[in-house]
Design brief:
With 234 residues, this protein is an alpha+beta fold. It is 54% helix and 14% strand. The longest helix has 35 residues. The radius of gyration is 26 Å and the shape is flat.
Length: 234
């Protein structure tokens, strides 16, 4: 019975992520199809000619249309039309706030030059002696930094995710000296948050210390030097 239980748990660990991933992907495809397919002309919709629905056709059309819009926006005429549309939206009291906010967020997140959430760190939260995992965003700028500069010095904006849903959380402005940067990637940090600490990335302290030593001194670590000096000269 112990061996059968171990086999079952092993199979569950292997199949559960695959099943959940397939379910989410299928749901996403179906959701996009339900939005796009009603707007596809009758003659171009394969569902009207085939005895079965073609899953993912709406998603393909959406990707093509988004790419085409991006291509048209990149030229002079497209930029002119876009600027005119933004001017119209800018005259609408409620719509302009939502549009500008969403646009700024997407530009920040999707920009290749952005360093948003490239590092993971630790801060003492909600009190001294308790540590929380945070995603480091950027250095604090503008009025926030100007108001707290005298008391806290340079601060950085960090995102404190909640467990097990890392998409919600808190924005904190923490003194830079109080944030401990970690070597783990953002993906590994997200896994740690989602699993409530059960899935922790591997960390080899000795290897990390040698890498840090080589980075700071610009030379080989002591162990590497001993290995190199122990090799016979040819």
């Amino acid at each position: 019975m112990t061996r059968l239980r171990n086999y079952f748990l092993t199979g569950f660990i292997v199949t559960a992520p695959l099943a959940i991933t397939a379910y989410l992907a299928w749901s996403m495809i179906g959701w996009v199809d339900s939005w796009v397919k009603p707007y596809i002309p009758f003659r171009y919709n394969p569902d009207n000619y085939l005895p079965f629905a073609v899953p993912g056709f709406g998603l393909i059309v959406a990707l093509i249309m988004i790419t085409l819009i991006g291509f048209l926006t990149a030229n002079f005429i497209g930029r002119t039309i876009l600027a005119t549309g933004e001017n119209v939206l800018g005259r609408m009291p409620l719509v302009r706030s939502v549009y500008r906010g969403l646009k700024q967020i997407l530009e920040t997140v999707l920009s290749e030059r952005s360093d948003t959430f490239k590092k993971v760190g630790l801060v003492e939260y909600p009190r001294k002696g308790l540590w929380a995992l945070v995603f480091i965003a950027t250095e604090t700028r503008g009025e926030v930094q100007a108001k707290i500069d005298d008391d806290a010095g340079q601060t950085i904006a960090v995102f404190l995710p909640t467990t097990p849903n890392p998409t919600s959380g808190y924005l904190l402005f923490v003194p830079k000296k109080d944030v401990i940067e970690l070597k783990m990637t953002v993906e590994e940090g997200a896994k740690l948050v989602i699993s409530a600490g059960l899935v922790a990335p591997e960390y080899h302290a000795r290897t990390a210390a040698l890498a840090e030593e080589a980075k700071e001194t610009g030379t080989q670590p002591a162990r590497s030097k001993r290995m190199a000096s122990s090799r016979p000269n040819k």
